[in-house]
Amino acid sequence: METRMERIEKDIEAIALFTATPGSGITRVTFSEKYIRARSYIIEELNSLGARISATLGGNLRGRLEGTEKGTACVMMGSHLDSVLHGGKYDGVAGVVSALEAARVIVEEEIPHRHPIDVIVFAEEEGSRFGSGLIGSRAWTGHLSLDDLPHLRDNEGMTYLEAMERSGVLTDDPSVLEAKDVKAMIELHIEQGIVLEKRGLQIGLVERIAGIRQFLVTIHGVSNHAGGTPMGLRNDALQGAVRIIAETEEIAAHTVGDPTVATVGFVICEPGQFNIIPGKVQFPVDIRDPDSRRLDETAKRILAAVERICLHRGLTFEVTPKSDIAPVALSQEVSSLIDKVARRKGIEPLRMTSGALHDSSIMAAITNVGMIFVPSKDGRSHCPEEFTEIKDIKLGADIFLDAMVQLSS
Amino acid sequence: METRMERIEKDIEAIALFTATPGSGITRVTFSEKYIRARSYIIEELNSLGARISATLGGNLRGRLEGTEKGTACVMMGSHLDSVLHGGKYDGVAGVVSALEAARVIVEEEIPHRHPIDVIVFAEEEGSRFGSGLIGSRAWTGHLSLDDLPHLRDNEGMTYLEAMERSGVLTDDPSVLEAKDVKAMIELHIEQGIVLEKRGLQIGLVERIAGIRQFLVTIHGVSNHAGGTPMGLRNDALQGAVRIIAETEEIAAHTVGDPTVATVGFVICEPGQFNIIPGKVQFPVDIRDPDSRRLDETAKRILAAVERICLHRGLTFEVTPKSDIAPVALSQEVSSLIDKVARRKGIEPLRMTSGALHDSSIMAAITNVGMIFVPSKDGRSHCPEEFTEIKDIKLGADIFLDAMVQLSS
Question: How many domains does chain B fold into?
Fold first, then answer.
């Protein structure tokens, strides 16, 4: 029982053609024409396996291989097909294709399974179109209500539900997914980080998904002419900000330490001219950690640095919270199963924390979730350079297949 | 012999009405409709004094009060009427109005003068429309040739000469201004800095105009997902940049020290998202000092910091030079005269360096230039909040008047 590398490769290349930005990466936003074509590709493949296709609440695609025992909870496998703007061809797709290939092997080899096996394509994972991610999984599991969806609009003002309907995705089953409906789920995903590659490993086993704390820091100083203001008479907002940003790294890397990460992704200076001292500076802080207490501690230390540095430099500040997402523990049972299956193939998976969110973060609230990571070259993701070797995806898919067969039997 | 405060105030308020952005500061770019109306206001006032009006090479306005001896070099006084976008009502205008008021007093009180006295409105001092400043003075003195002017275009592609012609400013005298034509010049200007106010002084005497060294630093790191990349595996371009920016301040403020100033006005991060480690960061460095060697030393130390910090962090960099303008020494003779005149009025002027460039920087290459600074509230300039007390401008104008009378006698 083995997946076939050439089919995985063919699927990935076929789906990669569905991009709005050929030649500069994958742009396939949820419910766009290219998205619907990629989704149709998966539907056709699932149809040829005899799967029962439906669209769930929130616009997720579900292809079911019925089990031998009616009415039992299903086991799920899948990921997403939507992309960031100018992203890569593996993010999400690697997981969808692995699930499709696993389904093919199960059907072809007539592997018996008591539980229904569902291949899932979650909708709007990235948040590239409607400003907020994980919409499909959040809507399906009741984390987002139908009352919330009309408020999610794309850049042109179209709501999530309008966009879904116009693209021809019509909900077949409006029910909220509940714990009783699902026995377990496995998602395979590219790591989007550099850890597996640096260690020369092929398989990661995600035990936790890090919590995220994001806030925006605004520093107010006094904007003045760069030539007319001696150094000692300045209240330069940027000079305060750079010391805070440097300390953010120190706190995450040394004071709190691994696995905490803290990132400042941009700095906006006003008025933002060559010859004017910045009077106002804004920058975001993104903190991730699998442990809530460490998230709290890191945030607290960074906020203390903001306060201390601003006070010392005659600056004022505001902090605007942006996100506060709790860490998620994935299923120990499913993880042990994946670990055992991998070891039987001679692979020792690296137990990891995912720093990025996935639909698995949401699904873990209602079912037993396991996640398999495969390496990302140079850790690059969300860019056209994103790359994962097909042989690594195949290895992940084989482990995935074995685990699914056991879970569904 | 004294200037009249109410006339100075009336002139400033009248000119302040000529703005393209009423309610949000002064926007009066060179050769725009509002600019031409402000210029016409000055022409009318000069006409009523019997001055001979002409437009010089480069579109500067010259209003001449003939002297008693034909053919002698003139003495000049003036500044500019063009503004930055959303600037204040004193920058440039304070100097033009002081010159106009001095001319009024000289005419009304029939003060004899051997040399012609020229009131000058220099064109395009700020560089707000054609991307480069001091155009009027540079063209007039031959620092910019007629071959250069067609290459200066505004945002809509109109050249400097086209814009000048369309606005009705037609050069009467196409000759390049030479040293033999001008005996001396004085410019009054708002300080645009905080030094006079902090010391509670009313008058600054500018001895030097600082040189400027500007360059753009580009740091290249590796852009990665903020969640998937441990702190120890990052090549975060922003974390390198913030340490360089912090050190820029240290070098200017402490290692080299006063009067050196160094400013970073903005930071651009790519890709510039909350959850992505910046892979590329650009920021400008603006260094000013009245002494060339100190400019060199400051630049050298900052560049050494760029190299050291990048090397240490696995980052690469490029440095693109942007400006290199030598310091200018103003006339010791004219400065002594201004100083003597001020002391006779019981004022001890503060000897200062101007960190900002002025038309005086250009004029100093061909004649003896003196500059008088009056205080700027909170050091604010190039913004709607720019403010100078009329009594301070009047005091400056009185000193200015006395000095002009002596220079022209």
Answer: 2
Cβ contact, residue pair B245, A238, below 8 Å: yes
Is the pLDDT confidence value at A146 over 80?
A: no
Q: Compute the count of residue pairs across chains A and B with CB atoms less than 8 Å apart.
A: 222
What's chain A's Rg over C-alpha atoms? 23
Residue B224 confidence (pLDDT): 86
Token pair in block for residue A383: 């860019």
Residue where a domain terminates, one of A325, A354, A381: A325
Q: Average pLDDT for residues B266-291, to the nearest whole number? A: 94
Question: Does ipTM come in above 0.90?
Answer: no
Joined together, the tokens standing for residue A203 give: 């398989």
Q: Sign (positive/negative) of CA torsion B366, B372, B378, B380?
A: negative
B127 sits in the region (left: phi over 0; alpha: psi -120 to 50; else beta) called: left
- Residue B75, token pair as written in the block: 């003495």
User: Quick check: B146 pLDDT over 80?
Assistant: no
For residues A349 and B128, the model is more confident at A349
Question: In B, which residues are within 8 Å of A378 by CB distance?
Answer: 222
- Check pLDDT > 80 for residue A47: yes
CB contacts of B356 in chain A (<8 Å) are: 225, 227-228
Q: The domain containing residue A314 runs over which residues? A: 211-325
By DSSP bridging, strand A368-374 and strand A350-354 are unpaired
| CATH number for B316 | 3.30.70.360
Say if CB A65 and CB A107 are below 8 A apart: yes
Choose among B265, B269, B379: nearest Cβ to A266. B269
* Subunit contact B226:A278, Cβ cutoff 8 A: no
CB atoms within 10 A of CB A273: 18
Q: Is the pTM of this model over 0.80?
A: yes
